Amino acid sequence: MEAPGCRRRQLPVLLLWVNGLMTLGFAGARQHTNLCNESLMLEKLPACGKSFEEMMKKVDSKNWCNLTEFIMYYDNFTQCTEREANSASCFWPNPLAEGFITGIHKQFFSNCTSEKVHWEDPPDEILITLILIPVMLTCAMITLVVWCSKRSDILV
Question: Based on the number of CB atoms within 10 Å of its own CB, is 109 exposed (0-12), middle (13-18) or buried (19 or more)?
Answer without folding.
Answer: middle
